[in-house]
Amino acid sequence: MNLQMNPPPSTTAADRVVSIDALRGFDMFWIMGGKPLVLALAAAMIQAKEPPEWLKRQLEHTHWVGFTCYDLIMPLFMFIVGVAMPFSFGKHLATGTPYRVTAGRDRRHRDPKSLGTTRRPD
User: Are 74 and 61 in contact (CB under 8 A)?
Assistant: First the structure.
């Protein structure tokens, strides 16, 4: 039996969509906790002890009273994932590795479930 191994897909800069990467980086900045840095920079820029009130309001989660910019961080991440998926699927299909699409999906689906079923409740 002759198994042919395909090389891993290329990840050179020419193969990537820069706008998706930039938006993902912007969103990850906020997910990882960019709020304190932005508030500190804003206060330093206007040479005050506190950042502007309007900025502090936009960086807080409003409790069932509409939404602010801060409430759009996770939906933006889900949007980016949806936009990037066709590029990923297309790359795997073009390189002849369509099994990687389903294997990755199955692994991401299986692992959290297996971790949840092996953990003992306290």
Answer: no
